[in-house]
Amino acid sequence: MNEITMKLNADRLIMQALEEDITSEDITTNAVMREKQMGEVQLLCKQDGVLAGLWVFERVFQLLDPETEAQFYVKDGDKVKAGQLAGVVRGDIRVLLSGERTALNFLQRMSGIATYTHQIAELLKGSRTRLLDTRKTTPNMRIFEKYAVKTGGGYNHRYNLSDGILLKDNHIAAAGSVKKAVEMAREYAPFVRKIEVETENLDMVREALEAGADIIMLDNMTPEMMKEAVDLIQGRAQTECSGNVTRENIDKVLSLGVDYISCGALTHSAPILDLSLKNLHQI
Predict the structure, then answer these.
(1) CA torsion through residues 97, 98, 99, 104, sign
(2) Catalytic residue at 227?
(3) Mean pLDDT by 10 residues, the chain (283 residues)
(4) In angstroms, rounded to a whole number, what is the distance separating the alpha carbons of residues 86 and 115?
(5) Which residue in 46, 79, 125, 136 is the catalytic one?
(6) Distance of alpha carbon 107 from alpha carbon 18, whole angstroms
(7) Pfam families of this UniProt entry (predicted)?
């Protein structure tokens, strides 16, 4: 998920967020600011972290008024410190006031994800294991949250259900067995698609291997069981560790030699990065 893709898809979602916040008017702003008046406001960092979503932040104001301009002193992926001035936004004060919360909601959420992702990605440095996100995203925020993961140093798993084959426990139950599920997926899917199978024990790992799965997910296994599974697979399929992986426990799987670690916490549990628009004044 890169900035070009974001720009192709983001406007509709940003407008929905604005419409959620401004159903008919911003009654408070219209009460205190009756006419257009140009102004400037500062974007301040209140915590240390990694920024992500500056373009989205700016775009909120531009959709309200194309003449709004933002000047940033940092870029996406940069580390910032508490108290740092990240940029200024200039435009009609009515637009600055009405767009403030929506713009900050996007930037704080995305920067929080980038910050948390960066913290975990740093723990993987020096290993061959890659950090992946999941589809455990906020509804209608996936494009922004997955972009934030990449900005923080992680990698994107499949974007949506059309993007890849992942045979989970209920798919396997519906098909009748791991072997049958893989056979049906290989028959149905284009040959360019890899097939991933979620496994919960060593018997399922063996069955997935025999069926020719391309990627085997080791889901909610103990570190000891995952080690046995990796030794059993011996590079015949790529391996992905999944299930309640967080910053606090990731060290337990680092030495196992898995190819990927998927972490739903990147998007469903990352706290926001505290940012603020302050010192609004007329210009």
Answers:
(1) positive
(2) no
(3) 72 96 96 96 98 97 97 98 98 98 98 97 92 96 97 97 95 98 94 94 97 96 93 96 84 87 95 98 96
(4) 16
(5) 136
(6) 14
(7) QRPTase_C, QRPTase_N
